[in-house]
Amino acid sequence: MKQTKNEGVFQRGDKLYTENPESCRGIRVYNEKLVHHSGREYRSWNPYRSKLAAVILNGLNINIKSNSKILYLGAATGTTVSHISDIVKKGLIYAVENSPISMKNLIQVSEKRQNIIPILADANHPDRYETYISDVDIVYQDISQRNQAEIFIKNTKRYLKDKGQGILMVKARSIDVSLKPEKAYEKISKELKENQIKTIDIKNLSPYQKDHAAISISL
Question: Looking at the whole model, is its pTM more than 0.90?
Answer without folding.
Answer: yes
